Amino acid sequence: MNGRVACPRCGQDWLERVRLIQLGEEAIRCPECEALWRQRVELRQDTFVDYGTFLRSRGRLDPDAPGEVEILGPVTTDTKPAPNILGLNQSMKDLYERLRTLPFPNLGKRVGDFALYDALLAGCADRASRGGCVECSEVPVPAEETVNQVELLRKKDHISAEESAFLQYFDVLEQLRVALERSKL
Ligand SMILES: [Zn+2]
Q: Number of folded domains in the chain?
């Protein structure tokens, strides 16, 4: 049996996992005092944000209106900080962090517009991970030459280390692009 987790702020109720429907994010909320935590790892008394204040800060002017929150279930002691709990923004941040640890692939320098695509996408991710807003039109898509190159490599039976590094890098960019697409409304 896994125990439920009491609100570290008020201690009056059990925390529940919620989906902030209009923001496309998951978070943890206290039904009693409406303290909100956006990440499982942040569950401390001094890390909450007020639910209503947070929603209003994100442009949701009537936080208590129906259709803003879906209750997903209780937070239990074995609730892991998995991506579905951390929410889309967090997985976007994770991907961005991962991208930053990867060296820019040599092959990428020879594929037209790939470096530009990389720079534009990283710029969007950087802004979004710092809480900034990314408009739909700003999230770039890979150029045709890049897409063709990737398709070509995926069909090859044996790829070189350089080609493999390029594909790996491209995959992280693609995941990041999808996460950015999903995080904007
Ligand atoms: Zn509380």
A: 2
What CA–CA distance (Å, rounded) separates 32 from 80? 23
Per-residue pLDDT tens over the stretch 23-74: 989 999 999 999 999 887 778 888 899 999 999 999 999 999 999 999 999 9
Question: 33 and 25 in contact (C-beta within 8 Å)?
Answer: no
To 10 degrees, the CA torsion angle through 12, 69, 126, 124?
A: -170
Q: Which residues surround ligand 1, an ion (CB under 5 A)?
A: 7, 9-10, 30, 32-33, 35
The pLDDT, as a whole number, for residue 5 is 86
Residue corresponding to tokens 């720079």 = 119
- On the CB side of 13, CA atoms within 13 Å amount to 13
CA of 16 to the centre of ligand 1 (A): 10
SS3 assignment, position 133: coil
CA of 14 to the centre of ligand 1 (A): 8
Enter the pTM of the model. 0.52
Range of the domain at 92: 85-183
Query: Do 110 and 29 reside in the same domain of the chain?
Result: no
Partner residues linked to 37 by β-bridges: 28
Domain boundary among 79, 112, 131: 79
Q: Are residues 59 and 107 in the same domain?
A: no
